[in-house]
Amino acid sequence: MSIDAKLVKSLRDRTGAGMMDCKKALVSSNGDLDNAIDFLRKSGVAKAEKKGLRETKEGLVYSYIHSGGRLGVLVELNCETDFVANTDGFKELAHNLSMQVAATNPVSLDRKSIDERIILREKDIFLEQAKKQGKPENIIKKW
């Protein structure tokens, strides 16, 4: 089946997928844009799962010191290649992530290190909110 270049461009504009991926999706869906989008979404999930298994041995450690020097953040951001780690976009991502960490003032680094008292206090707050919203008791027990 012959696929019109304008249709490929339209799909590419809507999804941001590569040109050849768009063409393959359109061929497999017989030129139907909606089915092609579904095809791309499904294949994108499969590609992401494959990439999720790759090792990220490169990257950078970025430090951010907030003005006044009273707050600092150290972020390790990993990627697959040193080429990516040296790009301005990757460095900007590290900077933005560290600023977000500084702004949110996290209470721990991971789930295991959260104090049990904090978890119980937050759970009590959520349960009270659920009761005030009129949630059924069987739903509240699941929280």
List keywords for this structure.
143 residues, mainly alpha, Helicase, Ruva Protein, domain 3, Tetrahydropterin Synthase, Chain A, two-stranded antiparallel sheet, 2 strands, flat
Please render the helix and strand layout as text.
Blueprint: H1 5-15, H2 19-28, H3 33-52, E1 58-65, E2 72-79, H4 82-85, H5 88-104, H6 116-132, H7 137-142
Antiparallel strand pairs: 1-2
Helix pairs in contact: 1-2, 2-3
Protein model, in words:
This protein is mainly alpha-helical. The protein folds into three domains: 5-52, Helicase, Ruva Protein, domain 3 (Orthogonal Bundle), CATH 1.10.8; 58-104, Tetrahydropterin Synthase, Chain A, CATH 3.30.479.20; 111-142. The protein has seven helices and two strands, in the order H-H-H-E-E-H-H-H-H. It is flat. The mean pLDDT is 87.
Strand ordering within the main sheet: 1-2
Main sheet?
2 strands, antiparallel
CATH topology of the largest domain: Helicase, Ruva Protein, domain 3
| Envelope shape | flat
CATH class descriptor of the largest domain = Mainly Alpha
Rg from C-alpha positions?
23 Å
Q: How many structural domains? A: 3
Briefly, what is this?
By secondary structure, this protein is mostly helical.
